[in-house]
Amino acid sequence: MSSRSIMAFDFGTKSIGSAIGQEVTGTASPLKAFKANDGIPNWDLIEQQIKEWQPDLLVVGLPTDLQGKALESITPRAKKFANRLHGRFGLPVELHDERLSTAEARSELFEMGGYKALSKGNVDCQSAVVILESWFESLWDS
């Protein structure tokens, strides 16, 4: 297992959560949520975060229904966001199934801090943590 640093994003039209993790440990930590205007973030803020953390790879959660099928309204937009990340920053980007990540993130946050921990930004960043840790698990399963 290599020691790559991986940054994950939980794409949303109003907010985009982010997390950072280390491939060698398979763990991730929440970073920050970026406000988005109809799915478009402030790219300068994302660039600052990428420069600060210098990830080797970016992972973007791919929203699907429970059967793994694309969701008409959001799946293509998450793919577009992933393509823009790659185009702007030249880093490799992988999409990862994010089924149930928000529900899992809410559950984890509630366990840690009750209702107060369930702010939108916290949930989006914890969702990015769930996505990234699930991506790490998929590496070990293969």
Tell me what the structure shows.
Keywords: Cytoplasm, Hydrolase, Nuclease, Ribosome biogenesis. InterPro entries: RNaseH-like_sf, YqgF, YqgF/RNaseH-like_dom, YqgF/RNaseH-like_dom_sf. Pfam families: RuvX. Belongs to the YqgF HJR family. It comes from Vibrio ulleungensis. By secondary structure, this protein is an alpha/beta fold. It is 43% helix and 27% strand. The chain is built from 4 helices and 6 strands; from the N terminus they run ββββαβαβαα. It has a 6-stranded mixed sheet with strand order 4-3-2-1-5-6, sandwiched between helices. β3 (27-37) and β4 (40-41) form a beta hairpin. α3 packs across α4 (120-141). The two termini are 13 Å apart.
Q: How many extended strands? A: 6
Largest sheet: 6 strands, mixed
What's the SSE pattern? EEEEHEHEHH
Provide the structure class.
alpha/beta
Q: Could you tell me how far the N terminus lies from the C terminus, measured between alpha carbons in angstroms?
A: 13 Å
Contiguous low-pLDDT stretches (5 residues minimum) are none
Shape: globular
Mean pLDDT: 84
Instruction: Give the amount of beta strand, in percent.
Output: 25-35%
Task: Specify the number of helices.
Answer: 4
- Rg over alpha carbons: 14 Å
User: Could you estimate the helical fraction of the residues in percent?
Assistant: 40-55%
Task: List the strand order in the largest sheet.
Answer: 4-3-2-1-5-6
